[in-house]
Amino acid sequence: DIQMTQTTSSLSASLGDRVTISCRASQDISNYLNWYQQKPDGTVKLLIYYTSRLHSGVPSRFSGSGSGTDYSLTISNLEQEDIATYFCQQGNTLPTFGSGTKLEIK
Amino acid sequence: EVLLQQSGPELVKPGASVKIPCKASGYTFTDYNMDWVKQSHGKSLEWIGDINPNNGGTIYNQKFKGKATLTVDKSSSTAYMELRSLTSEDTAVYYCAIKYGNPYYAMDYWGQGTSVTVSS
Q1: What per-residue confidence (pLDDT) applies to B3?
Q2: Mutate to test the interface with B, among A39, A46, A71, A93 (most CBs of B within 10 A)
Q3: Chain A residues within 8 A of B44 when measuring between CB atoms
Q4: What share of chain B is helix, strand, coil (3-state, %, to 5)?
Q5: For residue range A48-87, what is the model confidence (pLDDT) as tens digits?
Q6: E strands, A50-94, where?
Q7: pLDDT in tens, B68-99
Q8: How many CB pairs lie under 8 A apart between chains A and B?
Q9: For B110, which of A44, B12, B19, B31 could close a Cys bridge (C-beta 3.0–4.6 Å)?
Q10: Nearest residue on chain A to B41, judged by CA atoms?
Q11: Measured CA angle at B79 (ends B35, B90), to 5 deg
């Protein structure tokens, strides 16, 4: 199995900040990297697929980048509604997820 | 609008089984595979497997073979996951989700989750 590592388990930032969340795969996943947002009520939504493609309806302040084994999700101009936990997931083989990064307001 | 409607919380005894439904609407049920994902104790996510509603074909995470069985009822556009021989390790929230036509194994839409608590 491909292991996905999110080394930052929690992150504190201020409204309006630019925030970057990182994810590393145990081997090259050829950009098959997806990002999800989980709200405190448990609701899960797809934000970005295939590294950088924005899912329908997702605000443009979310963006993704990366290649090979290293990927990141960036939220520009942080808003209150962005408070959530963010998971990466590789789709190069049978899916595996990162451990999540919980984003809080400073 | 794509909706995946899951059932309410379940409290089950150790050793028992539970069958969790996921009712789909807003799209053609047989067009997209249904995935199931486990989240233990608000922590990370584990992919359990997926099912092709058209032919019933399944792929399982090796870890969940023998624990989970995925089925569908095309007449009601409902997918099911049955968990057997439950232990405390099966206490978790279980989500259904679909890959809505993308080839990147991205799960576009998710149910709201069903909480399963295994306790005597």
Answers
A1: 97
A2: A46
A3: 87, 97-100
A4: 10, 50, 40
A5: 999 999 999 999 999 999 999 999 999 999 999 999 999 9
A6: 53-54, 62-67, 70-75, 84-90
A7: 999 999 999 999 999 999 999 999 999 999 99
A8: 60
A9: A44
A10: A42
A11: 65
B42 has a pLDDT exceeding 80: no
The residue among A1, A44, A52 with the most chain B CBs within 10 A of its CB, best to mutate, is A44
- Identify all chain B residues contacting A44, using CB atoms and an 8 Å cutoff: 95, 97, 110, 113
Per-residue model confidence as pLDDT tens digits over B45-72: 999 999 999 999 999 999 999 999 999 9
Q: Name, in order, each residue with C-beta under 8 angstroms of A41's C-beta and a sequence gap of 6 or more.
A: none
Cβ-count burial A57-71 (b if 16+ within 10 Å, e if not) = ebeeebbbebeebeb
Q: From CA B34, how far away is CA B21, in angstroms rounded?
A: 12
Which string of DSSP letters, residue by residue, matches B49-69?
A: EEE-TTT--EEE-GGGTTTEE
Residue B45 near chain A (CB below 8 Å): yes
Amino acid at B84: R
Q: Does B105 touch chain A (CB under 8 A)?
A: yes
